[in-house]
């Protein structure tokens, strides 16, 4: 079926984004395939669609952002670095636009859970994920700081907002042999992306690179 110039435009931009990601060091075929397949422009508001494939974060309303493509790619690649059995249970904190959720669903299937604390974003993400055929991910409107204890343990956890320290509940809900990727903000305001691996002997922590995320809100603290 012939496609309109509009759609060809988005396809071309998406292809160019994937080539750029390869040049930036993203080599995992599953990550590249997911990002080549998912229409990222559908996860941003119409006025910003022409910029959806640029290497930048974009506003999604309510003072939140869709992470830039490289950030989505590197975090997903870090989750995948230990391989994939296809049986992994995956938890995302900070659904936001739902784009990262769609990437996770493309790779890990329907065993993906995602939590968002802003109701409007939770609802919008649900709609967008349905529209791209990812309706079987399990979306929760809740405080992600507490994780999802009734669904734990999780083999992979990804946190898409920066906390000042490792959230204890998430460490507890990570399976032995599991991996968590998250940004942490230091007292001086500088953020770093961390990979946390849970082994039978304890936690192994690796600082990956500098990061730039919106804050992970601790609702417990907000109440005081
Ligand atoms: N993964 C998102 C995407 O692809 O669009 C990125 C979302 S944005 C960088 C981070 C999100 O984390 C925001 O939507 C914000 O509301 C959410 N967030 C912050 N603190 C949270 C918490 N305690 N629980 C759940 N979501 C939280």
UniProtKB/TrEMBL annotation:
Keyword line: Cytoplasm, Methyltransferase, S-adenosyl-L-methionine, Transferase
Catalytic activity: [protein]-L-isoaspartate + S-adenosyl-L-methionine = [protein]-L-isoaspartate alpha-methyl ester + S-adenosyl-L-homocysteine
Catalytic activity, EC: 2.1.1.77
Compartments (UniProt record): Cytoplasm
Active site: 67
EC top class named in words: transferase
GO biological process terms on file: methylation
Top-level division of the source organism's lineage: Bacteria
Molecular function GO terms recorded: protein-L-isoaspartate (D-aspartate) O-methyltransferase activity
Entries under PROSITE patterns matching the protein: PCMT (PS01279)
InterPro entries: PCMT (IPR000682), SAM-dependent_MTases_sf (IPR029063)
Functional note: Catalyzes the methyl esterification of L-isoaspartyl residues in peptides and proteins that result from spontaneous decomposition of normal L-aspartyl and L-asparaginyl residues. It plays a role in the repair and/or degradation of damaged proteins.
Family statement: Belongs to the methyltransferase superfamily. L-isoaspartyl/D-aspartyl protein methyltransferase family.
Family matches, as NCBIfam families: pimt, PRK00312.1
Name of the protein in question: Protein-L-isoaspartate O-methyltransferase
UniProt source species: Vitreoscilla massiliensis
Source taxonomy: Bacteria, Pseudomonadati, Pseudomonadota, Betaproteobacteria, Neisseriales
Gene coding for it: pcm
């Amino acid at each position: 079926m012939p496609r309109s110039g509009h759609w060809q435009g988005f396809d071309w931009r998406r292809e160019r984004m994937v080539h750029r990601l390869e040049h930036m060091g993203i080599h995992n075929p599953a990550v590249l395939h997911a990002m080549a397949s998912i229409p990222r422009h559908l996860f941003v508001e119409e006025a910003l669609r022409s910029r959806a494939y640029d290497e930048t974060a974009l506003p999604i309303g309510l003072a939140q952002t869709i992470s830039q493509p490289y950030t989505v790619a590197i975090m997903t690649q870090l989750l995948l670095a230990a391989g994939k059995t296809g049986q992994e249970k995956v938890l995302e904190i900070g659904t936001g636009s739902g784009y990262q959720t769609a990437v996770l669903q493309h790779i890990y299937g329907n065993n993906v859970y995602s939590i968002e604390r802003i109701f409007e974003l939770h609802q919008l993400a649900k709609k967008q994920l349905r529209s791209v055929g990812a309706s079987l991910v399990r979306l929760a409107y809740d405080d992600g700081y507490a994780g999802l204890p009734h669904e734990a343990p999780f083999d992979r956890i990804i946190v898409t907002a920066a906390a000042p320290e490792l959230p204890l509940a998430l460490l507890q809900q990570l399976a032995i042999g599991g991996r968590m990727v998250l940004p942490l903000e230091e007292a001086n305001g500088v953020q770093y992306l961390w990979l946390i691996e849970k082994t039978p002997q304890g936690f192994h922590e690796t600082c990956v690179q500098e990061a730039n995320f919106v804050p992970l809100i601790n609702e417990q603290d907000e109440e005081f």
